[in-house]
## 1
Amino acid sequence: MAAVRKAIVVGAGIGGLTTAVGLRRAGVETVVLERRSAPGRLLTGGGFMLWHNALLALRELKLDERVAEAGVEIVYHEFRSDRGRRLARWDIAPEAERYGAPALGLRRSALNTVLMDAAGDDVLLGRRCVGFEQDPDGVTARLEDGSELRADVLIGADGVRSTVRDVLRKGHDLPLRYAGYTAWQAITRLPGEDVVPTGTFFNLWGRGGLRFLYMRLNPEEVYWDAITADSVGASFDMLAKDRREVMAEAYRDWPDPVPRILASTEEDAILPIDIFDRPPDRGGGWGKGRVVLLGDAAHPMTLNLSQGAGQAIEDGVALVRLLSEHERVPAAIAAFEDLRRERVDGMTGTAWSIGAMGRWRSRALCAGRDLFMRAFFDGKGRRESYAQMMDVRF
C-alpha cells in the first residue's frame, strides 16, 4: 500500500472501525477521529441481524469467529401476520452451510466491542473533525480544538449526518428522505424458550401501519423493534402516556408473545428512531481526490433488509483492498465507487419498497400483501433476496 502510508478515518461506528482495522493490518498508520468522548457512548444501541455476507467480509479481517461468539446463530426467518398466521418461513441453516458463514442476531454494542478492541489505540475519542483541505500530495483534517492532522487519505464514516459529506459537497446535497415511520427499539429481560425460541427471527406484518420484529439474543434477553407508520404515530398521546404504555396500547390485540414482550420492557430501554435514507444520486459521488465516504455517510438505507451494518462492513473491506491495489489514491477511490455503487443503490431501493408496504393501512391492501407473501415469499421472494444479498462485491 505504497500510495497510503497514513490514513484518517472520521467516525468510530461499524464502517469506520472496520476500515481502520483493515488499514492497520495492511501496515497503514491510522487515526480514527470520534467526536464522542465517553467510551460507553460508543457501545450503545439495540440488537440487529448480521447476515452471511457481513460475516464473509469480516472473515477478510479474521474477525468473523469473534463476532460469531458474541451473537446467536439465526436458523429461521419467520414471517407472520398480526393474527398469528405464518406467511413464510425461511430455513437459513442450509444457506449458512452453502456460503460457509452463519446469519447472526446480536447486540450492536457486541459488534462495536469486537471492532474497538481490534482497532486499539487508533481510536481517539473526543476529537471532532469540522473540515478538511486537500492538495495533490495529501489531505489535512481540521479539528474542533484548532489542531490539524495530515494524511494521504481521509475517510468519512461519520454517519447519516456526515460532516465530511457536507464539506465535500460544499453544503449542496439532496436532503435526507424520511421514510414515514418510526422504529421503537429495545432489549428486554425475558427468559424462556417457550416465550421466544432461540434461533428464529420473527417478522410480523400488521394492518393499520404496524409491524413488529423480535428475536432472542441470549437465554435472558430479547430484542424487539416496533415499526409504526406516521398515520398511526400521529395518534399517540405522548404527553399523557409513557413509551411503554403507548406501545402496549398500539399492539394490545396482537398475538402472544408481543404483548408479553412489551410488558416486560423497562420504559427507559425503549428508544424511538425516525427512519431516513438517501435516494440513490448519480449526480453526486462518494469521493473526490483523496477524500471518500462510506457506510451511512455515503448511502444510508432503511432497516428493512437488515443490511446497513453489513454494507458498511463490505465498504471498509473493499476500500482497504482497493487502496492497496492502486498506486494513486484518487484512482482507488474511483474504483471503490464503481465497485460498490450498483449494489448499495439496489439495496437502498429494495429496502425502501419493503418499508412502504408496512405503511399500508387499508384492510384490502394488507390482505393482498399477506396473500402475496404466503404465495411467493418461501420461493421466489427468498431466492431473489439471497441473490441480492450474496452478490458480494468486496
## 2
Amino acid sequence: MSRALHRFGAVLAAACLLFASWTAVTPGRAAALDPFTGYLMAHFTGESATGEQIYLAHSTDGLRWTDLNNGSPVLVSTVGTRGVRDPALVRSPSGDRYWIVATDLRIASGTSWSDAANRGSTSLVVWESTDLVNWSAPRLVNVAGGISGAGNAWAPEAIWNPATNDYVVYWATNSARDGVTKHRIWYVRTSDFRTFTAPQLYINRGSGQGIIDTQIIEVPGSVGGYRYYRASADGHITIEAGNSVLGSWTTLGNLSHMGISNGTGGGNVVEGPMWARFNGRDEWALWLDQYATGRGYLPITSTNLGSTQNFRTRTDYSMGGRRKRHGSILNITAAEQSRVLGKWGSTLPVNRIQSYNFQDRYVRHADFDVRIDANVSPAQDAQFRIRPGLAGASGTVSFEAVNFPGYYLRHYGFDFQLAANDGSGTFAGDATFRQVAGLASASWASFQSYNYPDRYIRHYDYALRLDPVGDAQARADATFRLTS
C-alpha cells in the first residue's frame, strides 16, 4: 500500500470514528429539541409527614393532571432539614441535563414559621439528572450564606440567561437592609449548580412590602412586546416584563381586576405563581395556589401577556388526587415523556395480606401500629401496594399503605409499625422483605427480613412482629397470601 493510500485510509477511519461519535451524541441532545408533547409538574403537597418532598404529576393538555408514582414522593431529601418545598424543574438549553432546586424546609418536623424565616436554612437542595428519571443524591448549596443576617432561603427558581451564558438562580431571603427586615429576592449565577457567584439583590419592593414567590418565563417571539415575563407574590400578584433577565423590568399591573391578590387586595388570596406555555401555540397559563382557602391551584390563561387585562379564569381543569403546592412545570418531549411515564406512570394494584391460620383476618394498620384483624374498617387500612424493595435488592418487596402514600410497613425493635419513608438506608432495610414460598404451605407466601434474614414477618397475639421461625405454630403465623 502506498503512503498516500495509507494516509487516506487513516483519514477515512478517523472520519468514521468522528461520525460514529456524532451519531452517539446527537440523538440524546436532539430529543430535547423535538416538539413538546406533554407537561411535567414538580411540587410538594403540604405539611404532612411526607408532604414536604418531591412529587411529580403529568398532563397531556396542560390543564388536567395525573399524579405519578401512585401519588407517592419520587425524591426524598436526606440532607439539611430533611424536607423540601417549592421545587423548580430546570432543563439545560441542549437538553442533556436537568436539575431540581428546592427550599430546604420541613415545617412538619415542628419548626415554627418564625424560626424558619428568621433562623432557618440558608441553603437550597439540588438534585441532578441526565435523563429526568435517574437522579443524583441531594446536595446542599448555601446560596444565602453571604447575605448579612440572612434568616432563610425560600422559593428558588432558575432560568438560563443567554446574555451571560449561565443560569440565574433566584430566591427570597428575609434579612435586614436599610433598617427594614423583610423578604427580598436575591440571585446568584452558576453554570453547573455547584459553584455560584456571590449573592446580589434582585427585587426589592418599596417601603416594608416583602416578596417571596417570583417566577420568570421566556416567551418566544416576544409575544406581547417583551421577551420575559415574571409574576411575583408581593401583596398582589404583580406581572412585569423585560427583555433581559438581569436588565430593567416594566410593571404591567396586577390581577386585582380579577378579584385575585396575595393578601393586600383581599378577594381570592393566592401565592406560588407558576407559569407554563401550552404546547404548539401562543397561549400561556399562570397557575395560582389558592392557599388561603385550601382549594389548590387555579389556572388563568392568556394569548397575549402584554397586558394583565388579557387573562381569563379557566374552569376546565383537574389537579389529580394529590394536593399540589408551589412548584414548577416543564414542557416535555415525547422521548422525555416516555421515560417519565415508563418509570412512574404505571399504577400498581391494591392488595390485602391475608393470614394463613386466621383466614378471616388481614394485615392492617391502626394508629400506625400493625396487626391482623377481621372486618377492617375503614377498608383502606388493610390495603397496600407491593413495591420493589426499598433497599434495592432484586426479588424483594416493600409494602406501601394505600391511604398513607409514602408510609411503609417496617420493623422497629422487631415490632411492626407504619412509618413514613425518611429516605435513610436503615429505613429501607427495615421495610424490605424477600417473598418466599409459604413456610406452612408452598402455595402461600412468607416474607423474610432483608436485614435480619433469620427472621420473618409473623403475627403473635394478632400483633405483627419480626421473629425467628422454629416450630409449626410459628410457621403458620408467618404464612400469608396476597389477595385483591
